[in-house]
Amino acid sequence: MKHTSYISDLWFDMYLRSRLPLVLNYNPFIAMNDDPNKQKMDQAIRAADLTVSALRFRNSLNANLLEPDVYHMNPKKTDNETFRKVVSFLPEVVSWYGAYFYKAFPLDMSQYVRLFNSTRIPRQDKDELFTDKTARHVAVLCNGAFYTVDVVEKNGDIRSPKEIHLAYQHVLKVSANAKPEDSIAVLSADERNRWATLRELLVNAGNESLLTKLDSAIFLLCLDDTILNTLDADSREMKQYCKNMLHGNGLNRWFDKSFSLIVDKGGRAGVNFEHAWGDGVAVLRFVNEVHKDVNSHNFVLAAGLSSNSFDPASHVHRLDFKLTDTIKHEIAKVRKTFEASTGRLDLSILQYHGFGKEAIKKYNFYPDGIMQLAFQMAYFRLTGGQTAATYESCSTAAFKHGRTECIRPATTLTKEFCEKVCNDGNGSPAEMRALLKATCAYHGQLTKEAAMGKRCGNVFRDAAFNTTSVGSLVEELPLL
Fold first, then answer.
1. Spatial contact of 196 and 22, defined as CB atoms under 8 Å apart
2. Apex CA 273: angle with CA 31 and CA 159, to 5°?
3. Which of 35, 134, 264, 327 minimizes the number of CB atoms within 10 Å of its CB?
């Protein structure tokens, strides 16, 4: 076979050929919990702490020191320090087999190479993924204005936390006079072919080097001016927080960047990421490790200036884009479209506190099976007894260059359970428990089959999406 994964090229094509705007259609977000130390929730301190932690993760990644991602079929035996220590003593050529013997499968981590210093560049009909590992700056977007901040020294060392903090304070200060209505940021939310045309207009106006600064930045930091009082699940502030992390006002996001770290005025943080280069597994691990690291260190508060002569202005550079009247007119048009599309989005958030996954596990049920059954039950009740084809994503990173596969949670067992609960209600507790057990067990079976490549929903979906590749796909499929 020509490639390690016959779905890989089709998958990239599916994302990169789509002409839909990235916002609302592709870019998801992951929210972070607040830092328990309220002093560290100052916007500039929080942003600097998260930056330092993100750069520490990047250093570990570049040095091949990150612990491998592992799928544990029997986590009680393998997801512990004893197992990790034993495997670490095995020679590299046989360590994989040792893990495999205990049903702990090392996962593909090829997506991580585009986590940093990467962006999606709009092109006509098919976009391009761009990465430049040599850049040592982050891009900062504040009040619609773009800046670059040097965060890595020439020798590769991370700049001191205090210096990064001072640089971000400087950005917050000088950006107060920016004109967000002229921000090119909203153009990244446009339909992809139109955005490709508009980017060419920006290049022709003399902005190519500035765009390259954005494309190559380690990541994008968005310093927002929003502040929320409470994040109770049913509060208006929680909905606004989620909408801000998902799309914002369009003037303080650059949706093409591999990921954007968002920090609002109250220090609340999250990550919005572009989806073509990778899936949630890589980003979720990054967010979890950064959050854990930043909560266990006082990078800024414990740091002192490395030099009394440090001048933040010499390390902060504004990207002053040259805008023609045509470009300004297009910015206004795209902004109007953006506000109309995001204005139609409504969110409803439910946090259930009655029990969680630990209680479910206590009774030997599969938590995701219970969650998916709850979705089926809700739909069944809302529609008067109807069911619908349902999609749940499952990582196939157990295979080289694997992405995701489709789990179909709507089954004959979920339908039978919903009918018994909603229609007759005559099942005995023992019968209902047995049916619930069978339903969850079958969902677990479907999940394992999807994770191990034994289901093929996405293969043929993507082949249908990209019909020009169907012939080559069929030629590469192994004979059955």
1. no
2. 85
3. 134
| Tokens 């967010």 belong to residue | 287
Q: Is 137 left (phi over 0), alpha (psi -120 to 50) or beta?
A: beta
Catalytic residues: 275
Selection from 391, 382, 368, 379 nearest residue 440 by Cα: 368
pTM (2 decimals)? 0.89
3-state secondary structure of 128: strand
Angle at 44 between CA 43 and CA 45, to 5 degrees: 95
Residue 474: its pLDDT value, please? 38
> What tokens does 209 get?
């080097």
User: Among all chains, which residue has been given the structure tokens 């993924």?
Assistant: 129
Instruction: Look at the block and give the residue holding tokens 């179909």.
Output: 408
Tokens standing for residue 104: 């702990």
Coil, strand or helix at 406: strand
Give me the numbers of helices (H) and strands (E) for the chain, helices first please.
17, 13
Tallying the residues shown for the chain, one arrives at 480
In this structure, the dihedral spanned by the alpha carbons of residues 251, 252, 255 and 256, taken in order and rounded to 10 degrees, is 100
> Helix (H, G, I), strand (E, B), or coil: what is residue 260?
strand
Taking the C-alpha atoms of residue 150 and residue 317, their distance in angstroms, rounded to an integer, is: 9
Q: Are strands 137-142 and 118-121 parallel, antiparallel or unpaired?
A: unpaired
Strand partners, 269: 263
Cα–Cα distance, 218 to 225 (Å, whole number): 23
Interstrand relation of 104-106 and 70-72 (parallel, antiparallel or unpaired): antiparallel
Q: Rounding to the nearest 10 degrees, give the CA dihedral for residues 138, 395, 362, 421.
A: 120
Q: What stretches in the chain show pLDDT beneath 70?
A: 1-4, 230-234, 304-308, 425, 455-480
d(CA 52, CA 151): 9
Q: What is the pLDDT of residue 478?
A: 40
Rounded to a whole number of angstroms, the distance between the first and last alpha carbons of the chain is: 15
Q: Helix 457-465 and helix 8-17: axis angle, to 10°?
A: 50
Residue that the structure tokens 């949670």 belong to: 409
Q: Which helix (H) or strand (E) covers residue 422, if one does?
A: none
Tell me the C-alpha distance between 5 and 10, whole Å: 10
Element (H, E) at 44: helix 43-62
Model pLDDT, residue 42 = 95
The DSSP element (H or E) to which 55 belongs, if any, is: helix 43-62
Of 326, 403, 367, 358, the C-alpha closest to 12 is: 403
Beta strands in 55-207 (DSSP E): 70-72, 104-106, 118-121, 128-131, 137-142, 145-150
Q: What is the DSSP string of 310-368?
A: --GGGTEEE------HHHHHHHHHHHHHHHHHHHT---------S--HHHHHHTT--HH
Give the pLDDT score at 3: 52
